[in-house]
Write a structure and sequence with these properties.
Elements: H1 6-12, E1 21-28, E2 33-40, H2 44-48, H3 50-58, E3 73-77, E4 91-101, E5 107-114, H4 118-124, E6 129-133, E7 140-149, E8 152-160, H5 169-179, E9 184-188, H6 190-193, E10 203-205, H7 208-213, E11 219-221, H8 226-232, E12 235-240, H9 253-261, H10 280-286, H11 308-312, E13 316-321, E14 331-338, E15 341-349, H12 351-356, H13 366-379, H14 383-399, H15 414-425, H16 430-433, H17 436-443, E16 451-452, E17 455-456, H18 484-488, H19 493-503, H20 510-513, H21 523-534, H22 540-560, H23 589-609
Parallel strand pairs: 1-6, 7-12
Antiparallel strand pairs: 1-2, 3-4, 3-6, 4-5, 7-8, 9-10, 9-12, 10-11, 13-14, 14-15, 16-17
Helix pairs in contact: 3-22, 13-15, 19-23, 21-22, 22-23
């Protein structure tokens, strides 16, 4: 390439991984002390950040109790977080999950990611990575501001957070906003304060739309229970109080156009007939693949009421909003209708909470469902975990009416569901707050407990998703196979082995770089974004190599923590044909046994060859 051309000059100025550094802060909450280091990057994983660096950093750390004060909680950014690459706003929390657990009782390494404006402000403060240990004696707010000297980009102040206790998520964020009007926030809700009783508490990240409107339009790092890990450290909120970064946008026009208008993001954009994840409700319902009443299919038309078209015909309007500078507008905010105009805000609707808090609980009244979505968000709970745990309890009560659990909640019981969610968030229902794996262990019936490794399934039938057990951080966050059976209809073992080991894990690339999963750009396009925005010499193939190494590191960590062959399994009813499902039944016990044997054999061999497991 001619160095006199613009592209040539850019290529000539690209840097190797070893020329980068990580601004790392170690925060000891017990001593209220902060130690800052600039860590030289050793490899591509260190530069990419996100899960690439954190899985390497934490993979060999032995943790028995994720709530112990010595257990590390890592917050970091991806290499693109806070740049002008569209959708690159994400922040990550990593550690050993109180929910993801082996059958021997040891916690598993995982992560949770969230969008919003918090990650952007952390980038503006020059904070790449924070490692939290210890436990504060009092509820604490960590206030991060620009540092006084070039030798330390950010300053950390420990402030009393007693006034935040017991409040809803939005109340906490709005209260902090009044106090720190230029800042953005990561907070836990009531559920995170009751971490011993609730293993699936989430971390909420503030958004510009939320602060401007006063409505609960926060985003969530939801999966894995890291809100409880924050709560166990008595860390109620983190305030990123610094200027938004002003990175250059030159050279990013082509990448941003692909993100904004390309094929990958088209299913989520408002300017297409698909218009968001909500589109999946009528599609899956028509195929008999929409989860109802604990991942069964009822064969009725009841779920028609949950489609966007149906809801917009009623007393509601839907308004699409995007994150800052994002044209995809994936947020679908439901408002009460006010004379043809959007009225009061009701809820922010995404596919997972919509389905798992409606049809999967036998509730089909949209107004009731919006109540549940908002209640779960305001409580700081993970909608997937609470929805699946409640549906298991309802199914148990259907089968055992003489020995009910969870105050006897039943399918279709909106009032009972509201009461149960409130009790879970307030620590008054620890039986349900422990998640479906522990609940099933207590009842002795695990055939219809829809989880693998303690992580409740997303809203896609496990009967046609045999890859779930190998997802490092949840079945749709870290294993993009959830719609393959619907789209491609393949049923042979070779196909699903490849899907588990290769196609599925590619989705975790976004959890390294900080780009939103709804961008759905190729690895080559993502590499181009990194070259332009960060000046890193990288290609799409090198990024996919890091994806594979991160998968192997994560798997090796699971095995090191005591996860055995039996942990990579599915509940018995996931292998039973589903009545009313129009797709071919293939996930039989015999099929899954072959898949399990082959996938584990390959992962063992590759992890040993990479030096991540002993030979």
């Amino acid at each position: 390439m001619d160095p006199r051309t613009k592209a040539g000059r850019m290529t000539a100025s690209l840097r190797s991984p070893r020329s980068f550094q990580v601004n790392q802060y170690r925060v000891d909450l017990s001593a209220c002390e902060v130690h800052f280091d600039r860590i030289p990057c050793k490899d591509l994983e260190d530069v990419l950040g996100g899960i690439a660096r954190a899985t390497k950093l934490l993979g060999e750390v032995a943790v028995g109790d994720p709530y112990h004060e010595s257990a590390p909680l890592v917050m970091n950014l991806g290499v693109l977080s806070g740049t002008r690459v569209m959708t690159a706003m994400r922040a990550f929390f990593h550690g050993y999950s109180p929910l993801k657990t082996s059958r021997s009782g040891n916690p598993g390494l995982m992560w949770s990611a969230g969008s919003g404006d918090f990650g952007i402000r952390m980038r503006g403060l020059g904070v790449d990575e924070v490692i939290f240990t210890g436990r504060s004696e009092r509820p604490v707010l960590l206030h991060i501001t620009p540092g006084d000297t070039a030798s330390c980009p950010a300053s950390f102040t420990f402030l009393d957070a007693t006034d935040l206790t017991g409040r809803t998520v939005n109340e906490r964020i709005q209260r902090l906003h009044r106090r720190f009007p230029e800042a953005h926030f990561a907070v836990i809700g009531p559920a995170g304060e009751h971490y011993e009783e609730v293993r699936y508490a989430a971390i909420a990240l503030s958004t510009r739309a939320q602060l401007a409107s006063g409505d609960p339009k926060m985003r969530f790092c939801g999966r894995g229970g890291f809100g409880g890990v924050m709560g166990s450290k008595n860390l109620l909120a983190i305030c990123a109080d610094g200027p938004a970064p002003r990175p250059p946008v030159a050279g990013l026009k082509g990448v941003n156009r692909e993100i904004n208008l390309g094929k990958g993001s088209s299913p989520f954009r408002e300017d297409t007939p698909f218009s968001g994840t909500w589109r999946l409700v009528p599609t899956l319902h028509l195929l008999g693949a929409l989860p109802e009443q604990n991942f069964t299919v009822q064969g009725t038309q009841d779920a028609d009421s949950l489609s966007r078209a149906s809801i917009e015909q009623g007393p509601f309007s839907v308004k699409a909003e995007g994150c800052h500078l994002c044209g995809i507008k994936c947020h679908k905010n439901v408002h009460a209708n006010g004379d043809g105009q959007p009225g009061s805000f009701r809820a922010k609707v995404d596919y997972e909470p919509l389905v798992l808090l409606s049809s999967n609980l036998g509730i089909y009244d949209p107004d009731a469902v919006f109540d549940l979505i908002r209640l779960v968000d305001e409580s700081g709970l993970d909608a997937i975990s609470v929805g699946v745990t409640l549906s298991y309890a309802m199914e148990w009560n259907r089968r055992h009416p003489d020995s009910p659990i969870g105050e006897g909640i039943t399918f279709g019981d909106h009032r009972g569901t509201v009461a149960a969610i409130q009790a879970i968030a307030e620590g008054r229902q620890p039986q349900l707050g422990q998640g479906v794996m522990r609940l099933a262990k207590e009842t002795g019936e695990d055939d219809y407990a829809m989880h693998s490794k303690g992580l409740e399934y997303p809203a896609y039938l496990p009967h046609i998703n045999p890859c779930y057990p190998w997802a490092l951080a949840g079945g749709h966050m870290s294993m993009r196979t959830y719609l393959l059976a619907v789209q491609e209809r393949e049923t042979n073992v070779d196909y699903w082995v490849d899907a588990t080991l290769n196609r599925g894990p590619r989705i975790i690339l976004d959890d390294m770089t900080g780009i939103c999963k709804f961008a759905f750009i190729t690895a080559d396009c993502e590499a181009e974004a990194i070259r332009v925005a960060a000046g890193l010499d990288v290609t799409g193939s090198k990024l996919l190599d890091v994806v594979n190494r991160t998968l192997l590191r994560g798997y090796a960590s699971e095995r090191r923590q005591g996860f055995e062959r039996a942990d990579y399994s599915m509940p018995g009813e996931a292998h039973v044909p589903v009545e009313h499902l129009t797709l071919e039944h293939f996930n039989t016990p015999e099929f899954f046994s072959q898949l399990q044997k082959r996938v584990l054999s390959v992962l063992d061999e590759q992890a040993r060859a990479a030096g991540f497991m002993p030979k």
